[in-house]
């Protein structure tokens, strides 16, 4: 069997077997540290990604240490929002290799280069996934130190998009007792990518988890605004800005930006100059983002609210149109089933006769588990509940229209509910219309209609 050792250039041939068990299928890319290949474990048929350190760097102590650091740090971590490292070793000619889980998708950096600005809900969901992975790392005494779009991967997994943190090559073992290499810990040496560097990294102060929270905040700022808060070709000026310059307000850079109230405050808290003034932890950051998401009717991961912050971020993908996120995006979809178009008001009533009893079944599952639900189905008692409860037609139409306004899959569908709201003349719809009107580009098509409806409903409410 071919040993699969690369030649002096570090290139591994397609079809070779690396380390006796990883068959090379194709090259995925090449970077400053090495080449990455798609391969397969020959014994179990599992797809893998194999990173081989460039031969020229094999005798470079700093590069070799960084490569080994990535293996050691990632090997200590086991979280769905962190890329899994499966193996590490040395080939016959001395070149180092690293075996990771195979991922399909794209780097956040590629998406930002293409789209510039993301929907605010997509940006928050991506940041949330990064923070969940960082929480896991921080609890194990590891600071990533290089959070940036190119180290955040948006992986497609079974119709879902899962955030994966990559490259722990300059990670800091700040509380684990593990030895740090001198190049990564010398006082006064800035380690990281300047655009995303925390103030303490810029001036060589001690490294703590707060560094990662700052860098994540820079990334979130960039996703929302279209650029990082500080940009400069001069690295010294850039690092000085991180340490002392005021963070530009969103509207200074994007006057017509549409983000929920409170979101900019969270980002600015994450960008505080002093680590002690920043958001206290990755978990606290997630909880604050969750408040924004839930307050704006964006569903989060399918889990009890008490467990938020402990689960991976992954959102199933549903049908889409040109006005909704494309496949593989984070959206306002249900987290347990793909997003479907909201029913039109006239479709609601025929469904009520059946839908409400399944709500009862769901309540049984929550209260007594699947066993209780199975017993209820087996007993036939659920079928005795087939008759729907009596409902007020006007109230049900209002409920259906408000649901369509909030959850319609496209802007056109959401706009189509407005005439019904005006017809019903219920002033309670004004708040929902204002909320929809201010929800940003995704609802641009309904702004004029919503504004007109608000005026009509307000006028009707004032009549004696």
How would you describe this protein?
- With 464 residues, the protein is α+β, with helices and mostly antiparallel strands.
- It folds into three domains: 17-101, Phosphorylase Kinase, domain 1, CATH 3.30.200; 105-316, Transferase(Phosphotransferase), domain 1; 345-462, no CATH class.
- It has helices at residues 61-75, 108-115, 120-139, 182-185, 199-203, 209-225, 235-244, 250-253, 263-270, 282-295, 345-379, 393-407, 411-415, 418-424, 429-437, 447-462, and strands spanning 17-18, 22-30, 34-41, 47-53, 85-90, 96-101, 105-107, 142-143, 152-157, 160-165, 172-173, 314-316.
- The strands form three sheets. The protein has a six-stranded antiparallel β-sheet, with helices on one face. Strands 7-9-10-12 form a four-stranded antiparallel β-sheet.
- A hairpin with a 3-residue loop joins strand 2 (22-30) and strand 3.
- It is elongated, with a radius of gyration of 26 Å.
- Residues 1-8, 176-190, 302-312 and 314-392 have low confidence and may be disordered.
Short description, anyone?
Helix content is 41%, strand content 13%.
Summarize the SSE layout with pairings.
Blueprint: E1 17-18, E2 22-30, E3 34-41, E4 47-53, H1 61-75, E5 85-90, E6 96-101, E7 105-107, H2 108-115, H3 120-139, E8 142-143, E9 152-157, E10 160-165, E11 172-173, H4 182-185, H5 199-203, H6 209-225, H7 235-244, H8 250-253, H9 263-270, H10 282-295, E12 314-316, H11 345-379, H12 393-407, H13 411-415, H14 418-424, H15 429-437, H16 447-462
Antiparallel strand pairs: 1-2, 2-3, 3-4, 4-6, 5-6, 7-9, 8-11, 9-10, 10-12
